[in-house]
Amino acid sequence: xxxxxxxxxxxxxxxxxxxxxxxxxxxxxxxxxxxxxxxxxxxxxxxxxxxxxxxxxxxxxxxxxxxxxxxxxxxxxxxxxxxxxxxxxxxxxxxxxxxxxxxxxxxxxxxxxxxxxxxxxxxxxxxxxxxxxxxxxxxxxxxxxxxxxxxxxxxxxxxxxxxxxxxxxxxxxxxxxxxxxxxxxxxxxxxxxxxxxxxxx
Length: 201
What we know:
Distance between the termini: 12 Å
Oligomer: single chain
Strand content: 15-25%
Radius of gyration: 16 Å
């Protein structure tokens, strides 16, 4: 079983998701972001970088995150990623359509590109469908799992750019679950966190 740590800024949605909900059982260590430089990651297998952290602060402590992934760890980055924190992520802004599902003949535009991947034993595309924040154009050799049809990726796994593993997504499930809306995000976390703990990454 992998041990998961998560960076934490004190936001209410992070508190609910990672500290006070049933999902807290998957989190071995909650790391207050300002204390990251003084915190040992020894024994941690997966480090989650949630959405809506203080971006200048993440940037100032980035060396510790990169050291972790270059040491063979797995970093999971959630939400819009306009900062160039991780190599080769090639994020591009897309306007977020919060209300696409109200349109006649509504389609999210999301597609599963590797249905055989182990992640999809834990979640479905429907579980990963609410809205997304931008897209990636990752390098060749990575595993894109969910993409926007005729556009970029919104969830991929990169074992090429570092000595460890980057799991990159423009989805922000912890924000919406922790803010008490978007039912799909609870289903997503109910599968995604067990997969991080025990699945084939």
